[in-house]
Specification:
Elements: E1 2-4, H1 35-40, H2 46-65, E2 71-74, H3 80-83, H4 102-110, E3 115-118, H5 128-135, H6 149-152, H7 154-161, E4 166-171, E5 176-181, E6 183-185, E7 192-195, E8 232-237, E9 240-249, E10 253-257, E11 263-268, E12 272-276, E13 282-285
Helix pairs in contact: 2-4, 5-7
Length: 297
């Protein structure tokens, strides 16, 4: 992305972390329950914390590669009681799972670099959807399971564009005026899906002992052939070479899976070559570039 702006950094009022309410922070009877109790104590459910830590890990890796001066973050404030489509639904205490952990994530990011927050729609005109429409970027909202730029990357590109353009308004005697100031150019870029290898923890206590009191191995990352689960390897079988990640082992073989963790086969350990030790991440680059071309006249 290339662009110019009359200000290098956009100033913003300090963000008051304590005033953000996520869902039903106060129950009607005053008793904490479930997820609400965790939020009151400043804790996150383990699964959500793991997802946020993955996002943070990716950001830290990008900071090592690029000179990032600011992060633009969309603050989701979804009232699912109104957007659920239920008949006669009124604004209530419902919340979206996307909202959980936002405050913690913003705190982590602010320790790395300045963070600027936006909402999907804003009265001042600087909402994510408002800039996305002006840029002419089409968003696929129908199927979130599609791993495509139009589904998962379009808002990220829009947020990055806020570093170069902003909506400004002014009033005259008879009317209110406004336009987008600054310039930005959307260019082709690589699109990749990053995930963690779905590894199980060791759970020997769940396995029944066999003869002699021994329990079969379950979970963990260690194999019997010097590899660890998640290692990137080359494996050869019947004259065909496969590239994938170690996902398991037997007494004489190593299981190799693709990026979606579907097993491609079991290979003789001697015919498996280590390319890279496990980093805890699986990066699946897409073929070609993102092709997020604008449709604006």
């Amino acid at each position: 992305m290339k662009g110019m702006h009359d200000k290098h950094c956009i100033s913003e009022e300090p963000y008051d972390w304590e005033t953000v309410m996520y869902g039903s922070e106060a129950e009607s009877d005053g008793r904490p329950s479930g997820l609400g109790q965790h939020r009151r104590q400043g804790k996150l459910p383990p699964s959500i914390r793991a997802n946020k830590q993955l996002e943070l890990r990716v950001v830290k890796e990008l900071l090592k590669l690029f000179p990032i001066s600011a992060i633009h973050y969309e603050l989701v404030m979804a009232d699912v009681d109104r957007t659920s489509g239920r008949k006669n639904a009124k604004s209530g205490k419902g919340f979206s799972p996307v909202m959980v952990g936002q405050r913690q994530m913003l705190k982590w990011l602010s320790e790395l670099t300045p963070v600027k927050t936006h909402q999907g729609w804003q009265k001042d005109g600087n909402g994510t959807s408002q800039l996305r429409n002006w840029l002419g970027l089409a968003k696929d909202k129908k199927n979130k399971s599609n791993q495509t730029p139009a589904t998962h990357a379009v808002d990220g590109v829009t947020l990055a564009a806020f570093e170069f353009v902003e909506w400004k308004e002014w009033n005259t005697a008879n009317a209110k005026h406004g336009n987008w100031q600054g310039t930005v150019e959307i260019t082709l870029a690589p699109f990749a899906v990053i995930r963690r290898p779905p590894l199980s923890r060791r759970q020997l206590h769940l396995c029944l002992p066999t003869k002699g009191g021994k329990r079969r191995k379950y979970g963990g990352t260690v194999t019997r052939h010097g590899f660890r689960k998640g290692d990137l390897v080359l494996a050869e079988k019947s004259g065909i070479t496969y590239k994938g990640w170690v996902s398991g082992d037997t007494k004489t073989q190593v299981s190799v899976s693709d990026g979606h963790w579907k097993r491609m086969g079991q290979f003789t350990a001697k015919k498996v070559q280590l390319l890279q030790q496990s980093t805890g991440l699986i990066v699946l680059p897409s073929t070609g570039l993102s092709k997020l071309t604008t449709q604006r006249n």
